[in-house]
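Researcher: Re-running this chain for the archive, since the previous output was lost when a drive failed. Same request as before.
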Amino acid sequence: MAEPVGAEHAPGRTAVVTGGASGIGRAVVARLLAEGWQVAVLDVAEAPTEVAELADAQWHRVDVRDEDAVERALDSVERTVGVPALLVHSAAIAPAAAPCLELSAREFREVLDVDLLGAFVVARAVAARMRRAGGGSVVLVSSAAGLRARPGLAAYGAAKAGVIQLARVLAVELAEHRIKVNCVSPGVTLTPLMLASWGTADPAEAFRLADAQAPIPLGRLVTAEEVADAIMYLGTGSGAVTGHNLVVDGGRSV
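Model: Regenerated structure tokens:
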């Protein structure tokens, strides 16, 4: 009988998190460090030195679209803390909403390059290392915007829908190498990126706008820590679950 796939087959407890400087990525990094993981962060931003709980993470300034830079960073991770047993890909951009007739091809391409191509570049590079090590677990962060149409998010919605399908295809292709691939799709989440996409810095206003467009049954926005809970489940404790997209949106999508 074949053994189950999952992070338990990869050596050590080394995790790579992209987009770990803020929002959901930061919450995941804090959670992993608290649970004793060696964490390497790939982000275009500098390490947030004012955040004490992230001080033990290894930091690499990397644009996820840059294949060579990603490979160099992962080579360094492998030399210093080991082959990743877990990848959480959270890096993304979410531009302000704009009607498609006012959206340029350049703007559309930039979102796809960061949010979709970046997911592919990082997942492929990490999966190659996991395959050599005997397995691992990958979690890609998509969005509920990839599941339902929200006016003004043609590029972001298309990119995030692509991330969901990318996770499914990778799950099928990589299963024989004992690599699980899953996806998490948060709804409107209390992060600076998501608030900016709603054009406000006020969580109450963001909730009002979101709830007016489509009711949120739980009556509040999702927190980054709640999304991190879902990511940790799929990444480290989900057994035979692979190819799944877990929606964390307070019931809004239903």
